[in-house]
Design a protein that fits this description.
The complex is a heterodimer of chains A (282) and B (396). Chain A has helices at 2-32, 50-54, 60-91, 94-105, 112-123, 128-135, 149-174, 178-185, 190-201, 203-218, 222-227, 235-245, 249-278. Chain A has 282 residues and is mainly α. Chain A has two domains: 28-57 and 248-282, no CATH class; 59-239, Orthogonal Bundle (MetI-like fold). In chain A, helix 7 runs antiparallel to helix 10 and helix 8 (178-185) packs antiparallel against helix 9. The two termini of chain A are 30 Å apart. With 396 residues, chain B is of the alpha+beta class. In chain B, 24% of the residues lie in helices and 32% in strands. Chain B has ten helices and 20 strands. In chain B, helix 1 crosses helix 10. The longest helix of chain B is centred in the middle third of the chain and has 18 residues, at 167-184. Classes of the chains: A mainly alpha (282), B alpha+beta (396).
C-alpha cells in the first residue's frame, strides 16, 4: 500500500505536466469544437453541432486528401532515403559516425522558420537552383519551383529526414550483420537477405521512424504556408486561417480535433500491433 | 594433390597485415579437418575465403575439382556455422532451419519432411516453435548445425562453434558433433584455437601461425612429432633445448651437447643428423619422471638435477618448474599416484632428479625463440580469457 502511494507521489510532477500542458489543452480543443462562434470572434454560450456540420464544406475533402497524400509521400521518401543513409552511418568507422551524426543534427541549430525561408530563396524564380537547372537544360525559364506541392514535399522531406534517420540509425547500429552473411551462406541473394533478414531485423526502427515523420508531417503548417501556393494548402493552414483570419475558434477547434483523431488512430493501431508482436519477443 | 577441398597458394592481406601467406591445403572427402592456431593466425580468414565472404589476393579454392574461388557465397555448396550462430531472431527454429530450402524453392511438402528429420537429428522436435532468444546456447548451436546441414552441403564450415559454451557443454557438444558427422558423413572444416577441441574431434589438423601452415597431420603426429617450435609449444606444453650434435651412436641415437648442462643428452636421431650440426630438441613435460633420489643409471635415459621452483596443483596432476641452471627452467608434469602411499610429496625448493627416455625427446626442423613465450609461466593477465575479437578484426 505504502509502495503504491510512493509510486503515485513520484509520478505527480510528470503527471501534472501531462495533465496541464497536454490533456487539458486537448480536451479544451474538443470542448470548444462543440461551442457556437459569435461575431466578435469569441466563443458563444451553449452547445451546438453546427461547426461539425460546417466541416462538410466541399473544399475540405481535397485539402484532407492532399494532407494525407503529402504526409504519406513524405514518410515514404524519408524511410527510403533514411535506410541507406543510416546504413552508411552505422557501417562507417566510429570517428566517421560521430561526424556524420553531427551533420544530421547541425541544421537544428538554426531556427526552423529561417531554414524554410532559406529554401524559399533557393527555390525562388530568381534563385540559384532555377538558374542552374535552366543553364543545364533541365528546366525552362517559366518552370515554377516554388508555390506548388513539389516544393512543399521537398522541404517536408528535408525537415523530417533527421527524425527518420535517428531511429533507423539506432536500429541498424544494433543489427547483427553476421545474419546477412548467414542468409547469403544459406543461398539467398542480397535482395532476399535484405527483405527477409535485414528489414525484419530493423522493424522497430522503421516503425518508430514512420511515427516520427508521419505525425508532424500531418500537422505541417509553416512549410505549406511559406512555400505552398493556394493549390497546396494543407489542413494546418486551414486551421490557422480559421483561428486567426476568420476568428472562428470553434471551427478551428473542430478541424484540430479531426486532425488529432487522425493522428491518434495510426498511433493506437501501431501500439496494438507492437503489443501483439511483443509476446513473441524479449 | 587430389583432395576434395583444395586450397592452392592462398594469399590474403588486409592493409599491411598479411593474414594468409601461400597457404596450400588438401582436405579429403568426409573427414573432419581442423584449422588450429592462435587468434590472428588467419584461420578465420581462410574459412571465410572458403565460404565466399572474402576473395583471396592470389591462389585458388577447388571444391570437388571445380574452381570456386570467385563464386559468391550463395552459389557454393558450402554452409557455415557461425561463431555466434547467427540465427534469424525474427523466425522460429523451424523457419530458421527451413530457410535454405525455401530459398532453393524446394517443394513445401519436402521442406516439411526434411525439417522434421533435421529437428530429430539435433533433438529439438519439442522446441521447433520457439524463437532463438528462448533457447539455450547449446540448443542454438544445434539449430545452427541443422540449418546448415539441411542444405546437404558438400562441406560444412564450423567457425569456433563451441567458443561461446561453457566447458561441460563444450565437451558434450563435441561428442554430439562427432555423432552428427558419423551420421551425415559431410566433410567438416573446423576452425578453433582450442587444441583439445581440435585433437578430440579431428581426423587431421593443420596448425596455422601468422598466416602460414606450420604442420598438417593427425592429432598424434602433431603432438608427438611437432616439426616446429611453434607447433611444439602451441599444442600442449614442452621444453626446448638448443645444442650441438657431438656423437652418433649406432646410427640411431646421438649425443647432444647443450651449453650449461652437464651430461650430454641422448636423443633419437630421426633426422639423420651428422656430428657438429646445431639442433633444437624438445621434451614434453609428461615424459619426465621426477624423484628426490638419483635414478638407477641407464644408457637410454637422460638425467638432470635441479631445484623445484614452482608447483601448481591441478587435481589430475601437478605442474612443476625445475630450475636446472640460469638458462633452463624445465616444465615437468607429475602424477599424484603416491598420495595414498604415505610418501612425502615433493615441495618447493627441494632438490630433485628428472629423467626421461631417449626416445621421448624429438628434434625440431624449425625453431623460433619467440615461441618460447608460449611456454612462459602463466601470469595474471593470461588467466583472463583471451577475447576472440582479434580474429574478427582480422576478418573485416
Amino acid at each position: 500500500m505504502l509502495r503504491r502511494l510512493k509510486e503515485w507521489l513520484l509520478s505527480i510532477p510528470s503527471l501534472a505536466w501531462l495533465v496541464f500542458f497536454f490533456l487539458l489543452p486537448t480536451l479544451m480543443v474538443f470542448v470548444i469544437a462543440f461551442k457556437p462562434a459569435n461575431l466578435l470572434g469569441d466563443i458563444g454560450e451553449g452547445w451546438t453541432l453546427s461547426t461539425w456540420v460546417e466541416l462538410g464544406n466541399p473544399n475540405y475533402p481535397a485539402i484532407v486528401w492532399r494532407t494525407l497524400r503529402l504526409s504519406f509521400y513524405c514518410t515514404a521518401v524519408c524511410i527510403l532515403l533514411g535506410i541507406p543513409f543510416s546504413y552508411c552511418i552505422a557501417r562507417a568507422s566510429e570517428k566517421c559516425q560521430r561526424w556524420l551524426l553531427m551533420l544530421v543534427i547541425i541544421p537544428f541549430w538554426t531556427n526552423f522558420l529561417i531554414r524554410v525561408f532559406a529554401w524559399k530563396a533557393i527555390l525562388h524564380p530568381e534563385g540559384i537552383l532555377k538558374h542552374v537547372l535552366v543553364s543545364v537544360g533541365l528546366a525552362t525559364p517559366d518552370t515554377m519551383l516554388l508555390y506548388n506541392e513539389g516544393a512543399v514535399l521537398l522541404v517536408m522531406v528535408y525537415t523530417y529526414l533527421p527524425f527518420a534517420i535517428m531511429p533507423l540509425y539506432a536500429a541498424i547500429e544494433k543489427f547483427d550483420f553476421s545474419l546477412i552473411d548467414a542468409a547469403l551462406d544459406l543461398g539467398s541473394t542480397v535482395a532476399t537477405a535484405f527483405r527477409r533478414v535485414f528489414v525484419p531485423g530493423i522493424r522497430r526502427g522503421i516503425q518508430t521512424a514512420i511515427l516520427m515523420v508521419l505525425i508532424p508531417a500531418l500537422g505541417s503548417y509553416v512549410i505549406p504556408d511559406i512555400l505552398g501556393g493556394p493549390t497546396s494548402e494543407m489542413l494546418g493552414n486551414k486551421i490557422a486561417q480559421r483561428a486567426s483570419t476568420d476568428r472562428n475558434l470553434p471551427h478551428a477547434a473542430a478541424l484540430s480535433a479531426l486532425l488529432c483523431l487522425g493522428v491518434m488512430l495510426p498511433m493506437l493501431v501501431s501500439t496494438l500491433v507492437l503489443r501483439r508482436k511483443k509476446r513473441g519477443e524479449p | 594433390m587430389s583432395g576434395f577441398l583444395e586450397f592452392e597458394g592462398i594469399t590474403k592481406s588486409f592493409g599491411d597485415l598479411k593474414a594468409l601467406d601461400h597457404v596450400s591445403l588438401s582436405i579429403r572427402q568426409g573427414e573432419i579437418f581442423s584449422l588450429l592456431g592462435p587468434s590472428g593466425c588467419g584461420k578465420t580468414t581462410l574459412l571465410r575465403i572458403c565460404a565466399g565472404f572474402e576473395t583471396p589476393d592470389s591462389g585458388r579454392v577447388l571444391l570437388d575439382g571445380k574452381d570456386i574461388t570467385d563464386l559468391p557465397p550463395n552459389r557454393r555448396k558450402v554452409n557455415t556455422i557461425f561463431q555466434n550462430y547467427a540465427l534469424f531472431p525474427n523466425m522460429t527454429l523451424r523457419e530458421n532451419i527451413a530457410f535454405g530450402l525455401q530459398i532453393a524453392k524446394v517443394p513445401k511438402k519436402e521442406i516439411a519432411e526434411r525439417v522434421e528429420a533435421m529437428l530429430q537429428l539435433v533433438q529439438l522436435e519439442y522446441h521447433a516453435h520457439k524463437r532463438p532468444h528462448q533457447i539455450s546456447g547449446g540448443q542454438k548451436q544445434r539449430v545452427a548445425i541443422a540449418r546448415a546441414l539441411i542444405n546437404r552441403p558438400q562441406v560444412l564450415l564450423l567457425d569456433e562453434p563451441l567458443a561461446a559454451l561453457d566447458l561441460k557443454l563444450r565437451q558434450r557438444m563435441l561428442v554430439e558433433l562427432d555423432g552428427i558427422h558419423d551420421e551425415v558423413g559431410t566433410t567438416f572444416v573446423y576452425v578453433t584455437h582450442d587444441q583439445s577441441e581440435a585433437m578430440g574431434l579431428s581426423d587431421r589438423i593443420a596448425v596455422l601461425n601468422r598466416g602460414v601452415v606450420e604442420q598438417v597431420g593427425t592429432s598424434t603426429e602433431i603432438y608427438e612429432a611437432p616439426r616446429s617450435s611453434f607447433t611444439a609449444a602451441f599444442i600442449g606444453d614442452t621444453n626446448f633445448f638448443n645444442g650441438r650434435v657431438c656423437e652418433i651412436i649406432d646410427n640411431e641415437y646421438c649425443l647432444i651437447e647443450i651449453e650449461g648442462i652437464e651430461p650430454r643428452l641422448r636423443f633419437f636421431n630421426d633426422k639423420n643428423l651428422r656430428a657438429n650440426v646445431r639442433v633444437d630438441v624438445s621434451v614434453r613435460p609428461e615424459k619426465f619422471s621426477m624423484d628426490r633420489n638419483p635414478p638407477v643409471p641407464s644408457l637410454k635415459h637422460n638425467t638432470l638435477r635441479g631445484i623445484v621452483e614452482d608447483i601448481i596443483y591441478l587435481g589430475s596432476h601437478s605442474k612443476c618448474w625445475v630450475r636446472i641452471n640460469d638458462e633452463y627452467l624445465i616444465s615437468v608434469t607429475s602424477q599424484h599416484s603416491r598420495f595414498l602411499l604415505d610418501r612425502k610429496p615433493i615441495l618447493w625448493n627441494e632438490e630433485v632428479w628428472i629423467s626421461w627416455h631417449a626416445d621421448d625427446g624429438y628434434m625440431l626442423e624449425r625453431y623460433d625463440e619467440n615461441d618460447e613465450a608460449l611456454l612462459a609461466l602463466p601470469s595474471d593477465t593470461d588467466l583472463i580469457e583471451e577475447p576472440a575479437a582479434v580474429d574478427d578484426v582480422e576478418a573485416e
